[in-house]
């Protein structure tokens, strides 16, 4: 008997954790991937009322409550004019489980999954866990993903490619034309386009476009979550939208692995989606002000940084030894190579941190940058 399955031996614990562990207790943390805002009160109340009335005690339907799936479908209509059948939605344990069941249901052993490098760490790990072959591809100078790069990487062995806009770790937002191209590529090459849209509402310049809007086949699967939009990372509630035949396959993985998303979280999500959206607007306005602050601070320090148009990250190019110097001076940032080999020479800064702390961190970064030059 072998000890462990190859698919897990090929996966290591995220490099991001290691940075946190190396930091002192008083460090200013620009490493976080979650908004520093409370979950909106009406979302919390949705869960509390469901718990107190006993409605959240039992399993829900495997796909999630009908009301939540209707609220998700209504969201796509409200935001993008897209008509979604609530039966074509599965509520999941965050965007993470949505990604997991999508890959499990579509990737055969050895098949390739193309994804952005630098990119969100789970794409590589979940591809391994699905017994697939990760195929990271580089980005344009502005850190967006070029559809032509994806198209050139497609082979007979390609099962899927991942598009993530707004993106972690870069903050880059893909244009409408790019999204149209991604949809065309999925249609023409008959490969799955997995559109990870967990940051869809955190956009400062222009607007978010989903490739779902442009696809002529059912080859686009859309993933999103309450995690970032409603500052609900701890609730673990996301979803996947796909055609019925795809949803039925993903449901087989979800049903046996998860049974259903946590019922209290489903009621909170329903309340978040159907209630007032002002808390989201206020959060996004704050992130935009901080984005401007960070961009100015990094540029003044002499660093080159593409303007992040969404999410809450900036990804400057940094000189050798910069991350260590910054960390030594008490600011936590994540070295770019934690997000893939092409991330080397970059660092990810999250501005999901209070404005005063950010200002302090930017001063330290300014000094540190001069010191390593
Ligand atoms: N996709 C991206 C790009 C992310 O950055 C994250 C979380 O950081 C996720 C998916 C997973 O989100 P969730 O917390 O909903 O599982």
UniProtKB/TrEMBL annotation:
Aminotransferase class I/classII large domain segment(s): 26-364
Coiled coil: none
Gene3D superfamilies cross-referenced by the UniProt entry: Aspartate Aminotransferase, domain 1 (3.90.1150.10), Type I PLP-dependent aspartate aminotransferase-like (Major domain) (3.40.640.10)
One function term, GO molecular function aspect: transaminase activity
SUPFAM superfamilies, per database record: PLP-dependent transferases
Cofactor(s) for this UniProt protein: pyridoxal 5'-phosphate
Family matches, as InterPro entries: Aminotransferase_I/II_large, AspAT/PAT-like, PyrdxlP-dep_Trfase, PyrdxlP-dep_Trfase_major, PyrdxlP-dep_Trfase_small
rRNA-binding in keyword set: no
Keywords (A to Z) from UniProt: Aminotransferase, Pyridoxal phosphate, Transferase
Xref: Pfam families: Aminotran_1_2
Quaternary structure annotation from Swiss-Prot or TrEMBL: Homodimer.
Family: Belongs to the class-I pyridoxal-phosphate-dependent aminotransferase family.
Protein name stated in the entry: Pyridoxal phosphate-dependent aminotransferase
UniProt organism field: Haloarchaeobius amylolyticus
Organismal lineage: Archaea, Methanobacteriati, Methanobacteriota, Stenosarchaea group, Halobacteria
């Amino acid at each position: 008997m072998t000890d462990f399955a190859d698919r897990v031996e090929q996966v290591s614990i995220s490099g991001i954790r290691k940075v946190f562990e190396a930091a002192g207790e008083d460090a200013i943390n620009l490493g976080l991937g979650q908004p520093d805002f409370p979950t909106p009160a009406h979302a919390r109340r949705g869960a509390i009322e469901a718990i107190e009335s006993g409605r959240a005690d039992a399993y829900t339907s495997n796909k999630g409550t009908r009301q939540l799936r209707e609220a998700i479908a209504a969201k796509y209509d409200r935001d993008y004019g897209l008509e979604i059948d609530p039966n074509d939605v599965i509520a999941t344990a965050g965007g993470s489980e949505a990604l997991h069941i999508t890959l499990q249901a579509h990737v055969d052993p050895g098949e390739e999954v193309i994804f952005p490098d630098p990119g969100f760490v789970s794409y590589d790990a979940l591809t391994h866990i699905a017994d697939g072959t990760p195929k990271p591809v580089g980005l344009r100078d502005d850190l967006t993903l070029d559809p032509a790069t994806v198209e050139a990487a497609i082979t007979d062995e390609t099962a899927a490619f991942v598009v993530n806009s707004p993106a972690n770790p870069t903050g880059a937002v893909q244009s409408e034309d790019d999204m149209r191209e991604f949809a065309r590529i999925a249609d023409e090459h008959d490969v799955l386009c997995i559109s990870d849209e967990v940051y869809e509402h955190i956009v400062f310049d222009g607007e978010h476009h989903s490739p779902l809007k442009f696809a002529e086949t059912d080859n686009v699967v859309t993933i999103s979550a309450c995690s970032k939009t409603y500052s609900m990372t701890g609730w673990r509630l996301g979803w996947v939208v796909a055609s019925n035949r795809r949803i039925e396959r993903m449901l087989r993985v979800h049903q046996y692995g998860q049974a259903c998303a946590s019922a209290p979280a489903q009621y909170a999500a329903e309340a978040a989606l159907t209630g007032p959206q002002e808390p989201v607007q206020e959060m996004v306005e704050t992130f935009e002000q901080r984005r401007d602050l960070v961009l100015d601070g990094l540029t003044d320090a002499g660093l080159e940084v593409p303007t992040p148009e969404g999410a809450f990250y900036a990804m400057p190019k940094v000189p050798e030894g910069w991350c260590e110097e910054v960390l030594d001076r008490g600011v936590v940032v994540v070295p770019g190579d934690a997000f893939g080999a092409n991330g080397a020479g970059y660092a990810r800064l999250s501005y999901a941190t209070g404005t005063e702390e950010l200002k302090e961190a930017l001063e330290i970064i300014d000094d540190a940058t001069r010191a390593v030059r």
